[in-house]
Automatic annotation (TrEMBL):
Keywords: Membrane, Transmembrane, Transmembrane helix
Parts of the chain that traverse the membrane: 88-108, 138-157, 169-189
Name of the featured protein: Oligosaccharyltransferase complex subunit
Cellular compartments per GO CC: oligosaccharyltransferase complex
Length: 199
């Protein structure tokens, strides 16, 4: 009989310990997901401190205006009008032409417009290309190369426009400009540096 009572007592103690642990875990979970809310008197004290700081700051900011009267100005908000797509295209295309012409090199190095070379008799004759130099150019040489690159760009633009219109004349003009610009650029390179990169 004593053994039975002892076993019932042990089971009851174990159940009480499990209930206490469950209650403690639920209390921890409640603290994590439901943190304690501040009391109303704490909120009022916090708000009053903020209002006091704002009043002090506004008093400091308003101090210069007690001695200086703000003029009444009627300023109009500036209105900006976007440029048309054609203007943007012209600006971008002219920038491309100048950059491909080597305008940055011309500003830094400041080369002459054309050069001069001597023939076998010692007579000086004008030379458009700065011979045997890939990284050098005259101004006219750069403008000529930029014009050739611009023609090729116009050919690609026309080929893109022909995608919707499907016009044979536009396609032929685009093809002629692309092929001509490439071949003229190769001719310029052969004139500048003979046998450069060619078998």
């Amino acid at each position: 009989m004593n053994e039975i009572i002892h076993s019932f007592h042990t089971v009851f103690v174990i159940e009480e310990e499990e209930e206490e642990s469950t209650c403690w875990q639920s209390h921890i979970i409640d603290q994590q997901y439901n943190p304690p809310q501040p009391q109303p008197n704490q909120i009022c004290t916090y708000n009053s401190n903020i209002n006091k700081q704002l009043r002090e700051m506004s008093g400091i900011l308003e101090l210069p205006f007690k001695f200086y009267k703000v003029p009444s100005l009627r300023l109009k908000t500036p209105t900006f009008s976007y440029p048309s797509p054609m203007k943007v295209f012209v600006i971008v295309f002219v920038t491309y032409f100048l950059v491909s012409s080597g305008i940055i090199y011309d500003f830094i190095v400041q080369p002459p417009s054309i050069g001069y070379s001597q023939d076998e008799r010692g007579v000086q004759k004008p030379s458009v290309f700065q011979m045997y130099r890939v990284n050098g150019q005259f101004i006219i040489e750069g403008l000529s190369a930029g014009f050739i690159f611009a023609l090729g760009a116009i050919g690609f633009i026309l080929s893109d426009l022909n995608k919707d219109k499907n016009n044979n004349y536009i396609f032929i003009a685009a093809l002629v400009l692309i092929v001509a610009s490439y071949n003229i650029a190769i001719v310029f390179l052969r004139m500048k540096i003979p046998n450069y990169g060619f078998a």
